[in-house]
Amino acid sequence: MHVVVTGAHGKVGRAATRVLLDAGHEVTAVDVGRPVFERPEPGAPHYFQADLTDAGQAYAAVRGADAVVHAAAIPDPTGNAPHVVFQNNLMSTFNVLEAAIRFGVPRFVNISSEAVTGFFFADRPCLPDYAPVDEDHPIRPQDPYAIAKHFGEQLMDAAVRRADIRCLSLRPSWVQHEGNYERNLGPLVRDASEQAAGLWSYIDVHDLADAIVLAAESDLPGHEVLYIASPDNAGGHDFATVLRQRYGDRIELRPLSRPDASGISCAKAARLLGWRPKRSWRDYLDANGRSLPR
What we know:
The protein has a single domain (2-283), classed as NAD(P)-binding Rossmann-like Domain (Rossmann fold). Helices cover 34% and strands 15% of the residues. The chain contains 8 helices and 11 strands. It has helices at residues 11-22, 55-62, 82-102, 144-162, 181-190, 205-217, 239-247, 267-273, and strands at residues 2-6, 26-31, 46-49, 67-70, 107-111, 130-131, 166-172, 175-176, 203-204, 223-228, 252-253. It is globular. The mean pLDDT is 95.
């Protein structure tokens, strides 16, 4: 397929682009950063610069695609003014999806977020009703990032009602890569009492990229929402024990797939996509949360 990947210079988009190329797809990498006039590296994707909040540029980027992976976004609400986050993230999603509908693109992969549940960046802190959290859990976003991601999922619902398009919204947990495991997850490995809005959940960026490829190739009808999280928690803690120690009985504990389960369930992604993550924090950190020699 010819796959357009937006946000291709970001953490998620860059990994997805590489795995899509490795899977034999043609990729157009779209981002807001300026291109350079150089002879392309062997095997590099075609690069197209676009500000996706502008509808015309979004249409130009999407034309000719067989599938779109929409990863472009301001990644959290803390580094920009609220209206900037909301306007950028929602309008870019609207424009790219609208272009896909108008050009008859049959597949659309929307990179949403675990933040839609409302446990992250909240002005009034809230807790999950139950754990592990799954796709049936109520949605209660407060901040502009999570609200825009939630509205993006609703745009997918509307798209499948009005067009012949299949949409998958992936909600990744906290995305990690080779260079940030110790900084991000090291404290959780060493001390389970550390604040963990995602209930000690995480996902390796390469496992997320594998899920994105499966989603782009999927023939699932309609619009499905899938959490993408590692099956184990950061630190390998006994989940039932640390949940009770940290939150008492304020979060209902539901059946676990394993003692060291993540606080977010990936069972639906495994069932519908056949996705099986291959990587763990244990590949990068020792039992004290320090980086292993590479």
